[in-house]
Amino acid sequence: MKLEMKDSPGQLVSALQPISEVGGNIIAVIHQRDLSSREDTLGVQIVLEIAESRLTDLVSMIKERGVNILRIGKDRLLYKQTVIMIGHLMHTDLSDTVDRIDCTGFAEVTALDLAMPAINEPSSARLTIKSVSKKDMDAALDILRDVAKTKKLLIIEPLEGELV
Amino acid sequence: MTVKVAVLGLGSVGKGVLEMIARKDLDIIVTGVADSKSGLIDPSGLDIDAVLTAKKTGRCGDTSISANEVVSRADYDVLVEVTPTDAGSGEPAHSYMKMAIERGKHIVTSNKGPISLHLKELKDLANEKGVLVRYEATVGGAIPIMHTLGNGLAGNKFVALYGVLNGTCNYILTRMAAEGLTYDQALAEARELGYAEADPTYDVKGIDAAIKLVILANTIWNNGASLDRVDITGIDRLTNDALRLAEEKDCTIRLIAEAFPERGVLRVSPRIIRKDHPLVFEGTLNAITLETDMAGEITLIGKGAGSIETASAIIGDILFISSHVRCN
Ligand SMILES: NC(=O)c1ccc[n+]([C@@H]2O[C@H](COP(=O)([O-])OP(=O)(O)OC[C@H]3O[C@@H](n4cnc5c(N)ncnc54)[C@H](OP(=O)(O)O)[C@@H]3O)[C@@H](O)[C@H]2O)c1
Q1: What does R_g of chain B's alpha carbons equal in angstroms?
Q2: Is residue B269 within 8 angstroms of chain A, CB to CB?
Q3: Residues A51 and A103 in one domain
Q4: CB–CB of A159 and B162 under 8 A?
Q5: pLDDT higher for B141 or A28?
Q6: Which of A87, A125, A157 sits opposite B272 (nearest CB)?
Q7: Is the same domain home to B170 and B313?
Q8: Is B9 in the pocket of ligand 1 (CB under 6 A)?
Q9: What is residue B25's three-state secondary structure?
Q10: In chain A, how many domains are there?
């Protein structure tokens, strides 16, 4: 998630302290100059990992310290999986194949690299899928396997238990 | 103590076994041999060099002596069954083995057909007759996987198994990745080098690997695994683009056989795999990774085929029998 706040002396330290108290993990602290439309403020963006259940605690602890949180952005899609597909991807409507994952709401195709083959040869693509949880990833892959079956595509998945 | 063997099949494997018995001081004598059209029996031990020389001209021996007769009449302790694999029926090897077991003879084989189809039946019959059936050479060529499972790792619980069980496929994938060859080009190269059969269907469609997976699963879990329960995808539809797309992510593609007994998964399929994974190596090698409760993860890598390499596994089994049970 991302935390954005006003950059005035002492605020940063006050904001960082509670994060470790609730078991969060700070990934990056980024100072931003043009964050806010409010003329005189500087923004700080903190990228951190925290259990969903502790988020309200954290927010109130930070607020108690007089830090103003401007915005909280949550990146829900933490699970990432790469698969390769082979077959007549264009003839079988690649964008439909991608949509079937995207329309689930719990998983998305976040990158697609397509290798263009010689005419009439099967094409190959690498898809990066992101999802909210491991369970959602499994569900997304099940959908993809079904689509592949009807469209006669070959899906190559990573070795089980390995995230690539 | 000297052990007496009868060898059925004098192809690549059978000749390798005879050569090693002749050349090395192993205390093994050969009292019977047979190929598809002839046979020889000598209770005091055949002259192996003479047999191998005769075989160069086609038949190893006397056309009036059949393989059947060698099995049922010759005086031996161990039947070395190295005739061709018939994955559908396991015959005629299956019948030869049963006949020998009925006579109270031990079995050593490299033949995947009867072992993947009839392991339980053969073992039960052997138990009843007080003899052993050993088949180290059926999986992973020279790799001592069966000895490892049965002895070295005895008492462990096996949680999962991953293997590269077909050297031909591994060679083809290695060449597609390294040189950007198409599947057809890499297959042609494998054929030229003698790594692929004239009809490579069994290898490239994943069937050979699946048969070996069935043998491993039945050996480890005794779970009645059979070929029709393995989820099989071969490598024959892979493109060099697919390999390149994997390599761009520091990965590659390998044909992996997998078993997860708790979920009932038996599967052979091309998989994306990190390049620094122990199951990624070049050429025709085979490897098996076992996940166990006590020993943790163990990977064995070695030559998966070849005349002398397979003979190594056969001879290991013969000597295991001669050192663990009394041969008459
Ligand atoms: N080659 C390897 O690296 C390797 C590795 C692991 C396992 N294996 C397995 O080991 C076995 C032997 O392989 P291979 O490569 O040696 O095969 P191969 O070169 O084809 O030799 C087969 C031999 O069996 C003989 N034969 C055929 N039908 C027979 C019958 N009904 N009774 C008696 N003999 C018969 C053939 O006789 P003729 O000489 O008269 O034709 C030939 O000598 C196969 O089951 C194979 O799958 C092989």
Answers
A1: 20
A2: yes
A3: no
A4: yes
A5: B141
A6: A157
A7: no
A8: yes
A9: coil
A10: 2
ipTM for this model: 0.88
- pLDDT tens for residues B130-141? 999 999 999 999
Confidence tier at A135 by pLDDT (50, 70, 90) = confident
Same domain? For B182 and B297 the reply is yes
pTM: 0.87
Distance of alpha carbon B181 from alpha carbon B217, whole angstroms: 34
* Number of compact structural domains in chain B: 2
Instruction: Give all strands (DSSP E) within chain B, no chain letters.
Output: 3-8, 28-34, 39-41, 78-81, 106-109, 133-134, 158-164, 231-232, 251-260, 265-274, 285-292, 297-303
Does residue B212 carry a catalytic annotation? yes
B42 vs B37: CA distance, rounded Å:
18
Confidence of residue A35 (pLDDT cuts 50, 70, 90): very low
Greater pLDDT, A41 or A12: A12
- What value does the mean pLDDT of chain B take? 96
A151 with A118, same domain: the answer is yes
Residue to test with chain B: of A82, A126, A144, A153, most B Cβ within 10 A: A126
Residues A41 and A85 in one domain: no
Looking at residue A60, its pLDDT comes to 87
What is the CATH classification number for the domain harbouring A118? 3.30.70.2690
Q: Which residue of B has its CA nearest to A124?
A: B242
From the candidates B15, B112, B212, B303, give the one annotated as an active-site residue: B212
Minimal CA separation from A45 to chain B, in Å: 30
